[in-house]
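Re: that chain you flagged

S.,

Sorry for the slow reply, it's been a week of failed gels. I finally had a moment to sit down with the sequence you sent. For the record, here it is as I used it:
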Amino acid sequence: MSANQDHQTSFFQQQYNHYIKMGFIICGVFFFAAVLSATLINISGAITAKGTVVQIGENKPVQHSKGGPIKELLIEEGDIVKKGDVIIVLDSVSIDSKLARLKKQEFELSLTLDRLNTMIRGDDNFLIDEQKYENEIIEYPGIVDTEQSVFTAQKNLFKTNVDELNVRLSGLKNEIQAIKKQRQTSQRQLSILDESITELEELYKRQLISKSRLTTLERDKVTVLTQLESLKVTELQKLNTFNETTQRIEKLAKENKEKIWQQIEKTTEDLAKVQTEIPTTQDDSTRLEIKAPVSGRVHKLIVNNINEVIKAGDPILEIVPNSDNFIIHAQVTPADIEQIYFGQETRIRFDTFNQQSTPEIIGRVLFISADSITDDKAKGEKHFLVKVSLEREQLEKIEATINSGLPVSTMFTTTERSLLNYLIKPLSEQLFSAFREN
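Prediction finished late last night. Pasting the structure tokens below so you have them in one place:
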């Protein structure tokens, strides 16, 4: 019985060793197969980045060069408009008042210019061309009265100044004539005295008269000569004053004309400016309607109320053009940008759509920004902008409506690597880093 038991134990031992050996063989086969698979099987890598759908064709901003208060607001945020549709109408009150003011200035300056030209010609009266200014005379009677009053006042002022000088000239002329007569009288007295002195000298030589009579006549002669000299000096003074007054009249007339010419020059310049501004303002009155420059959807509308004032040149709204062409703007981190290249295949998943019914679509890289971009909204984080194209055939796979601004997830397909490489690379990089630090 003991021999039988020994035989059974030996049999079980052999069976146990056999199974152990088979287990090692199977494990070895599985290990070898796993290593072989890890070496031979390649897995495509991918870089994931968040992105946004962007419609091709930049949003068209809508502005107005002059601005003004809103009279009619014909659109709301999100409305669909066609190219040429009137979307906002501005109030014309400010432009109408400006145009009326310019028209009034034009008439006033034109009438002033006519008055100045009349004064230059020296006309006695200022006659207004009633045919030329038929409507303006009726509309602005105050301007007509003012110009007539100014003409009369300036003409009278000049005439008064000249008349005063002419009166002075007349007085000087009379004084000079009187001096000349006095000189003639004194000259005759002097001739008579000379004759009398000559006769008395002859009688004195004969001792027929006394010396005193001759001395008296000679004394009278000296007095007359002194008077003649004084009259001569006075006459010269009066003549100088007469000439000076004549020159003052001529200077006054010259200065008056120069002043008028200066006023004509300035008025002509002012009139030219106003006449240049009038057609511009008239053109502005035809641009009160703001129209849609392109067909699309209203976006970023910043005005909401009637009478709200639009500032000149400021953006009022944007129109997102109608288009079926979209691209993806993806934000790739600086650590992954080296693995992005032009034409790289990219899988795109729409985050807001039902993931079970919405398939992934394929796009390709068509643009990589040359430098990183700082995102202020994300606490200064940097990223590279990568644009991914979307083919129409791919977009047709999406049943939902695609709009600009939808968030997506992008997966950029990188080079294939073996499974063994994926397993070993992290360990090898840590070892390399550790050795480099040591």
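What I noticed first: The helical segments are 2-40, 93-121, 134-139, 141-205, 211-285, 392-395, 419-437.

Talk soon,
D.
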